[in-house]
Amino acid sequence: MTRQEAIDKVLSLFNEGYACSQSILLAFGPEFGADEKTAKLISATFGGGMGRLREKCGAVTGSFMVFGLAYAPEDAKDMDNKLLSYRKVRELNKHVDEAFGTTSCGELLQKYATRETVEKRQHHQIICTKVLAETAGKLYDMLHEDRKI
């Protein structure tokens, strides 16, 4: 999968109706053996900033799930890989924060959309697709740099 193919896959899934978190995990999860049904179910409640709480952006939380698949250790005592996965989380979070000024779903909506566009669900095309594309691209770059994909 190329970088652009990954971004296109994420956006395609999102446009089909999957949440941001689901779109990221469904696009990248198979690279690490995650089956489609499990990926859909695990990531489903993270949409809308985690169950529409408007907390952490779903593109970001979906990426965190991918980092778990790619870097997190199976052995609870493997602190090196645990800390590596945490560094990856922080790096991606920082990138999205610098690109958009926040990683909070609610703050993204306030900053880039209006109440009316959110009520009409137009925010998906106004900001969500931009955050998804940027996040998917950075996620791909990080995984590719480490030869994970």
Average pLDDT confidence is 96
Q: Name the helicity range.
A: over 70%
Radius of gyration: 15 Å
Give the overall form. Answer: globular
**Uncertain spans:** none
For the sheet with most strands, the description reads: none
What fraction strand?
under 5%
How many helical stretches? 9
Total strands: the figure is 0
- End-to-end gap: 8 Å
Helix vs. strand class: mainly alpha
Number of domains: 1
Element order: H for helix, E for strand:
HHHHHHHHH
Could you characterize what this model shows?
With about 150 residues, this protein is an all-alpha fold. It has one domain. The protein is about 70% helix and about 0% strand. It has nine helices and no strands. It has helices spanning about 5-15, 20-30, 35-45, 45-50, 60-70, 80-100, 105-110, 115-120, 125-145. Helix 1 crosses helix 2. The chain is globular. The N and C termini lie close together (about 10 Å).
What order do the helices and strands come in, and which of them pair?
Blueprint: H1 3-16, H2 20-28, H3 36-43, H4 47-50, H5 58-71, H6 79-100, H7 105-112, H8 115-119, H9 123-145
Keywords:
149 residues, mainly alpha, 9 helices, globular
Gist?
This protein is mainly α. It has helices at 3-16, 20-28, 36-43, 47-50, 58-71, 79-100, 105-112, 115-119, 123-145.
